[in-house]
């Protein structure tokens, strides 16, 4: 399913989280999730699945405070595994260590496990069903939330033991709490260039490029008008979007600027901010 996370599509490539205790989070992300450390400093670590590609960075800011409830920002980031058998091995790993899950769902387009890190940052680990099995109606993909057939999934593990995240793991998507939809839709659709692929229950919106079921999820479940969290609170610091080429990124920047959105460049990195205060890096 890698075709949805490479050119000519625009997709999420890396997420940066703020945590209260770097050492505690490192232990969790290495031992429970299965990441490898790519780089590490006193207050930050960059994590990888293949030993070379950064997927997640975690940092402990000065004066960090716990995650603030009912704010905008991260609902969950989602790690996409190469195969269903990989997901089965992750589930068996969680069963073996008795790690508590927050959910296990069949979304028709994918099968997913949900949990949280020690700071309450949401995590989804999932595998996609083949794209030719997704059902589309009037340019919207059919998605739902059903209970996962756990025994059926575990049988797919083929008796192979879990050995960390497989090298082909990708940052499949990110799902965000937002404060409202009008300006948010304008920002992500007209500005960044995404398309709506599913409206879910009137309070959630799924958007993508290239016909993926979603590269970004947006919801108002923390309340319409929810405030942005404090800069030093646990949660999402930024996520990065990769454009297929410099021209497509430049066009997105020009659209954002025309809309009056915040766009600036720091150390060669283009940064923008959505209407709910979430920071985004625009890469090529």
UniProtKB/TrEMBL annotation:
InterPro entries: Glyas_Bleomycin-R_OHBP_Dase, Glyas_Fos-R_dOase_dom, Glyoxalase_1_CS, VOC_core. Keywords: Dioxygenase, Metal-binding, Oxidoreductase. GO terms for molecular function: dioxygenase activity; lactoylglutathione lyase activity; metal ion binding. It comes from the Bacteria. The keyword Metal-binding applies. Residues 11-128, 170-284 form the VOC domain. Coiled coil: none annotated. It holds the Pfam family Glyoxalase. SUPFAM superfamilies: Glyoxalase/Bleomycin resistance protein/Dihydroxybiphenyl dioxygenase. This is Catechol 2,3-dioxygenase. It comes from Halalkalibacter nanhaiisediminis. The lineage of its organism: Bacteria, Bacillati, Bacillota, Bacilli, Bacillales.
């Amino acid at each position: 399913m890698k075709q949805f996370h490479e050119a000519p599509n625009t997709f999420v490539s890396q997420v940066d989280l703020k945590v209260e205790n770097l050492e505690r989070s490192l232990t969790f992300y290495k031992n429970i999730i299965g990441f490898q450390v790519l780089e590490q400093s006193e207050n930050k670590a960059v994590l990888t699945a293949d030993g070379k590609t950064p997927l997640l960075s975690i940092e402990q800011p000065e004066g960090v405070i716990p995650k603030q409830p009912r704010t905008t920002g991260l609902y969950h980031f989602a790690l996409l595994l190469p195969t269903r058998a990989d997901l089965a091995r992750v589930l068996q790993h969680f069963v073996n260590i008795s790690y508590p899950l927050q959910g296990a769902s069949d979304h028709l387009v994918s099968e997913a496990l949900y949990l949280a890190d020690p700071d309450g940052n949401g995590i989804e680990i999932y595998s996609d069903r083949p794209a030719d099995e997704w059902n589309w109606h009037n340019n919207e993909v059919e998605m739902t939330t059903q209970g996962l057939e756990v025994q059926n999934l575990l049988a797919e593990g083929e008796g192979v033991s879990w050995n960390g995240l497989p090298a082909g793991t990708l940052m499949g998507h990110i799902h965000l709490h937002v404060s409202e939809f009008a300006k948010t839709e304008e920002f992500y659709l007209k500005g960044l260039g995404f398309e709506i692929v599913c409206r879910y229950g009137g309070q959630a919106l799924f958007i993508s490029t290239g016909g993926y079921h979603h590269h970004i999820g947006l919801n108002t479940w923390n309340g319409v008008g929810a405030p942005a969290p404090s800069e030093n609170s646990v949660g999402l610091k930024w996520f990065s979007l990769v454009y297929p080429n410099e021209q497509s990124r430049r066009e997105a920047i020009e659209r954002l600027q025309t809309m009056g959105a915040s766009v600036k460049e720091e150390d060669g990195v283009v940064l923008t901010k959505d209407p709910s205060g979430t920071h985004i890096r625009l890469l090529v």
